[in-house]
Amino acid sequence: MLKQAVKSEEEFDDGFFDHLRCAINSLCEELAEKFGLYTSRGEPRRAFILDTLMRYSCHGCIVKVLTQQRIDDRADRLFLENHRLAVGLLVEGLRRRLRDGFKIEEEVKGEYGRPDIVVKPTSTGVILEIANRLEVVIEVKTGEGFTYSQVFRYLIERPNAIIIVWRITKRQVIKIYGERHRKLLLLAMEAALERGIAVLKGEYDECGHTPVRTAPYVIEDAQAIVDDFLTAIVDTLPVIIESVLDVIRSCLKATEAT
After folding, report:
1. Phi (first) and psi of residue 79, to 5 degrees
2. Residue 162: which H helix or E strand, with range?
3. Which candidate, 3, 33, 26, 50, places its Cα nearest to that of 195?
């Protein structure tokens, strides 16, 4: 499978990308069968498997993550409520500014993840060329979290999307343009394939790393977390809304110039 998927750098085109994506999909299915990684509906846990392959370079760590049950991987209810509040306010803010010609969706289900918010033009509201090209994926982070593996997973499904990460308490907005980083995405996909194939073949040794958390997360100062978050969301909500609008304006301007 890997020999068929890996080509020279000169052949990094849409056909090669599609080939890699199919290979990754098949690989995830094989790893799901090997380790019994299925959802309650009997579907392979593709997002979890691919995230693991993209996050860890150590084959031993990959096997540990795929086989060891975490004590409690659920986020504390406080963080869930923070996230719900932030997403809701951002969606309403975008709806007020993008009344016509755009569709704003929450928790969009996909093969390799579930983005918090996806903004797309409707073909009836804007010119068709923009409707086919522009897609903004917004990921809301209420804590310290940020991983490139998540960004790459979203880009595998939406290779031309613009990923915007809103790190609320860090007061940061990060933009990643899929079209600009296609070669990097392909390199990450190839690396994931190589690691997954090695694991399928049993080519891994025990390692001394501990990628799986063995103790539950404990909030030591909930009041400080709430105070900082509520202040940060007021400070940065206008920034993230304007960032999304800037991306849309830039795309419209570029299309008009062609």
Report:
1. -70, -35
2. strand 162-167
3. 50
Nearest-angstrom CA–CA distance, 97 and 45:
36
Residue 239 main-chain phi, psi, to 5 deg: -70, -45
Strand duo 136-141 + 162-167: pairing: parallel
Q: Measure the CA–CA gap between 14 and 162, rounded to whole angstroms.
A: 17
Q: Which two tokens stand for residue 19?
A: 């080939």
The whole-angstrom separation of Cα 80 and Cα 73 is: 13
**Per-residue confidence (pLDDT) for residue 256, from 0 to 100:** 67
Please compute the mean of the pLDDT values over residues 119-139 and round it to a whole number: 72
Closest C-alpha among 197, 184, 150, 178 to residue 54: 150
Cα dihedral 256→157→12→8 (10° resolution): 170
Q: Tell me the whole-structure pTM to 2 decimals.
A: 0.88
Cα–Cα distance, 36 to 24 (Å, whole number): 17
Query: Which strand ranges, in their side-by-side order, compose the sheet holding 162-167?
Result: 102-106, 117-121, 136-141, 162-167, 172-177
What is the reported pLDDT for 258? 61
CA max distance for the chain: 56
Confidence of residue 71 (pLDDT cuts 50, 70, 90): low
